[in-house]
From TrEMBL:
This is Transcriptional regulator, TetR family. It holds the Pfam family TetR_N. The keyword Nucleotidyltransferase does not apply. Keywords: DNA-binding, Transcription, Transcription regulation. The lineage of its organism: Bacteria, Bacillati, Actinomycetota, Actinomycetes, Pseudonocardiales. Residues 3-63 form the HTH tetR-type domain. Residues 26-45 bind DNA. GO terms for molecular function: DNA-binding transcription factor activity; transcription cis-regulatory region binding. Gene3D superfamilies: Tetracycline Repressor, domain 2 (1.10.357.10).
């Protein structure tokens, strides 16, 4: 169980990386920005990698909590897109994208398994939107994978361009029967 100080510093560091990114975070500037020292951060998290792992777990918990509010049944993909395209979620999604990409090119260390875990998380959310008789079938998995690919592609485009209207129209058209 983390101490109150560890939780406080993790939350402050999380707010910092939502604004400044995580890949090139340096302990000294981070510690100064959150009112701590590198010595305290190393004591609480063991290493910079330990802190990065804790921040990734914190980001994933935030993402899963938000995804948990999407609900089940028809319309899950549209509700997911509404959530993804909300400007308030851009910092979390940019951090997610950074961690996702980093886990692909640096599969060891604190990034290990992040991309694979998020694919599984999102497929589960999409599964909840399918009719029960389809959920455990190969066709259901193919459909979820297609929806996930379209959502992720649209998200990349949205984060790169900020053109929500165009991207939303394309996403809705691609998911139409």
């Amino acid at each position: 169980m983390p101490s109150a100080r560890e939780t406080e510093l993790l939350e402050a560091a999380y707010r910092y990386v939502l604004t400044h990114g995580l890949a090139d975070v340096s302990l000294r500037p981070l510690a100064a920005a959150i009112g701590s020292s590198t010595r305290v951060l190393l004591y609480l998290f063991g290493s910079k990698e330990g802190l990065v792992r804790a921040l990734l777990a914190r980001a994933r918990a935030d993402e899963l909590a938000l995804l948990g509010d999407i609900g089940t049944g028809p319309g899950v993909v549209a509700r997911l897109w509404d959530w993804l395209s909300a400007p308030a979620h851009r910092p979390l999604l940019t951090l997610w994208l950074e961690a996702y990409a980093r886990s692909l090119v640096e599969p060891d260390g604190p990034w290990a398994g992040f991309a694979r875990a998020t694919v599984a998380d999102w497929l589960e959310v999409l599964k909840a939107g399918q009719p029960e008789e389809v959920r455990e079938t190969a066709a259901g998995l193919v459909s979820r994978t297609r929806e996930l690919a379209v959502l992720r592609g649209a998200l990349l485009d949205l984060l790169a361009t900020g053109d929500g209207e165009r991207v939303t129209a394309a996403l809705r058209a691609s998911l139409s029967p």
